[in-house]
Amino acid sequence: MGTLYLVRHGQASFGAEDYDRLSELGHRQSVRLGEYFAERGIHFDGLIAGTLRRHKETLAGILQGMNRGGEHLSWDGLDEYDSDAVIATVHPDKLQKPTSPEMVRHHFRLLRDGLAQWMAGATQPAGMPTYRDFVAGVAGALDHVRANHYGKNVLVVTSGGPISTAVGHVLGTPAQTTIDLNMRIRNTAITEFAFTPKRHMLVSFNAIPHLDAPAYRDWVTYT
């Protein structure tokens, strides 16, 4: 039996021109997760990450917290969908930078609607794969882990979309459930699978044990 730890990236830069970089808190979340792994004596035989900047920065922070280095495998099938392109399929006008809770809620209502349409094959966001191909990219990463890392611990750093898709793929959930899972994944949360050469089995979802202490209460974020 092997163990796969899927980790969502640290807090990125929601509302900024360049979302694809960690905030200062995102860096601290990542280092803290690495410290947690080191405190628990959890070591990784395989390191895999999506190709986005926030994935690489999160992995670097985790390794810093663990006081270790290591080469990782880049896997573009673990890259996040383009939320702006998804929203544009249901709201062609450019959204203003969210400056209030209601504007944030409006953004995510549109994202939910756009995701549902894309997953159903009713729309095709510009510059993105079909949803079938998106799932195939995530499933390919799971297949790689099973084929190459049986009996080992593997760390994968990616985004909420691929993580919820991995859970949905393994459990066979409907599209709406996958969207619901996606919207609730916290930054640097751990989703754990046990795996054999034949299949993955979900052990835990969206856990943040490294942020459980009162000192880290304000470190829990979703965007």
TrEMBL record:
InterPro entries: His_Pase_superF_clade-1, His_PPase_superfam, Mito_Ser/Thr_phosphatase
A GO term for molecular function: hydrolase activity
Keywords: Hydrolase
Pfam annotation, one family: His_Phos_1
Membrane-spanning parts: none
Protein name as it appears in the record: Histidine phosphatase family protein
